[in-house]
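Hi D.,

Good news: the full-assembly prediction came through. Inputs first.
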Amino acid sequence: MSKSKTKAKTKTKRKSRKKKFERVDGRKADELRPVKIETGVIPNADGSAYIEMGRNKIIAGVYGPREMHPKRLSKPHRGVLRVRYHMAPFSVDPRRSPAPSRRDTEIGMVMTDALEPALFLERYPRSVIDVYVEIIQADGGTRCASVNAAAVALVDAGIPMKDLVASCAAGKMEDHIVLDLGDYEDKKGQADVPVAYMPKLEEVTLLQMDGILTTDETVEAVELAIEGCKQVYEVQREALKKKYGMDEEDTAEDAEESEESGEEPAESEEEDK
Amino acid sequence: MSNNIVSRLKRKKIEEVLEAGTRMDGRDLNDFREIEVRTNFLEKSEGSAEVRMGKTHIVVGVKAGLGTPFDDTPDEGVLMCNAEYTPVAHQTWEPGPPPHGAIELARVVDRGLRSAEILNMEDLGLVSGEKVYIVFVDLYVLNWDGNLIDACGLGALAALKGAEIPVFKVSKKNEVSETDKTQKLELRCEPIPITIYKIGKHFILDATADEEEVADGRLTVTLDENNNVTTLQKAGPVGFTVDEIKKCINIASEKAAEIRSQAVASE
Amino acid sequence: MSAKFETRDIVVPGDLLFEGRARAGDNTYRNEGNIYATRVGLANYNKDRVSVIALEAGFIPLVGDLVIGMVTDIELGQWKVDIGAENEAILTTNDAIGKPFRSYQDMTKILDVGDTIVAKIVDLDRRRTPILSIMGRDLGKARDGFLIDITPSKIPRLIGKKGSMINMILKETRCQVTIGQNGKILISGRNRENEELVVKTIKKIEAEAHTSGLTNRIQEYLKDIKEQRK
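Then the structure:
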């Protein structure tokens, strides 16, 4: 352990002597890849979202809350969130088997833990909320892109949430801490730190790391990743609003109408203190 | 034709409307829904196609790589279809091993391509008994609203038509190495499946999920561009008379050209 | 103490709606004295009450709701009914025919698996399973027509102020339309053309539920289509 730390330190020292640093795709160190999010892409699902983050192409669909099958997996006092992360056979090179891998299972689990803090699962005893993520094309950072799509899909499904969850990785490439590693950087880089973050509650809900970083670099990477999450968050917000093509002046009289009819779903959330 | 419980009301209404010569969505019995095709939209696949047929939405990825040939065909490449019912596509679809429907879907599309000899398999052999091209066609269902065989058959053809596979070099010592060149897959024909659904005494094309649910059976007829039949697949717990089979083949052969012409990117 | 948005602004979960004391209404939650949104929707500040009119929300069953569902199973003295809620609803023979179950009774004669019913939620048991009744006017087995689904949170718009929207559709199309609070709508008309018109109109209302002047726009829409037909 101590040995690798020294190694990491010497690597950073070299930074000053190096010639100008350039990323493979010409991005700045703190620049995201282009992000595009669209909601309501799967008509059958209760909520859904499609994300392109770099060349990642990922679709997320939400079903629920619904009765849990098999029943023994349900909990009597709260709902269960299940996230399934799955890669299409053609999403990577070379083709992969469609059977779920250990990696898929683990990512599904960390994604569950990333999204659950934003939900009110105590409201759904015995029920399950299923989030299905399908990687159509992978380009590095699929778990982060998946969290971004899944969070938007949950909102699109009308599931009450405390906050959105935005996700982005930072890492180390040629001794520089950089944001949102692409496929090449992911493979050739020295470290990768995926982070998911609730921007309003200011809490990190997913944190993993592999590679070698000094403790200072580790904190720097987490902080940079959070900056990335905040940028992603803005794209998520816009995607959610875009569905309704909101036109400000269009809405004034409307408030009266639903107010007076008094028939809006009267789910009282008073009790949440 | 569904394992789910079918609403009697739904069945009654669909039959009523068919009796009047039309469909729930206003289509004629032999009309397809609007078809949208996008090709080569996945940079990391050798070929790809996205097909939307009404609300049915599928993605096809073609991957080509090196593999070993089957023992009985040492000089021939391999073409394989695989289909997945992703749980995202319908509320009753669950994660897990492929259900029977997905396996049937893959096999019917696969037979349609292979028995039509769409690829010259010998061209895809590299080193006899050792190295050949393996071409995978993965059918990926993202939203189910009926008629998957036709949507996937169309998608598979569109993806293969646009596919460019890597060129491998074989040295004198029979060593295979990759080059940075690619080549188009040469298609010898263009088979397309047309599935006729039977509801009572009515026959319809491009069934929606509702129609498929209440259907008694279906017959898929795959035809190449010379209207040769290359695959048949009858399904559902109901019989077809010879006259009905004739009728289905006629409907399919009248429709195949129109659907085949859509196996390119829509404008 | 201040509002952070204007009434009718679109908000997303986590948005801070109000700093300070106020009543937290629908689709909001309170955290450390402030009020935040829990659903995507339109902010609504009404006196001291802060709420969000949800644009997306699943069906939350409440006692008194009229719902439409399908019988999925028959058990001893009760039917299971899928009404699109978290849990399947229960209908007992008592609430179906007003008599307790007798073992010689053939329950399928009353309702069979696959039947569609219009029912009222009369209770929620302690596991929040909806208990239904089909005893009452306009309740019971649906014998004609077909169902369409819309997002349950848009049902109020389809009904309109004191039923203005739906009454207009009924008048213009002469179809029978039964609206379930669970987003399921039973439609039955004398001709196909009018039934299709009802479906199109309802889909239009669903898509534009968050916009204003909708009633007038729908009226125009129906009028235009009728003119075209002439």
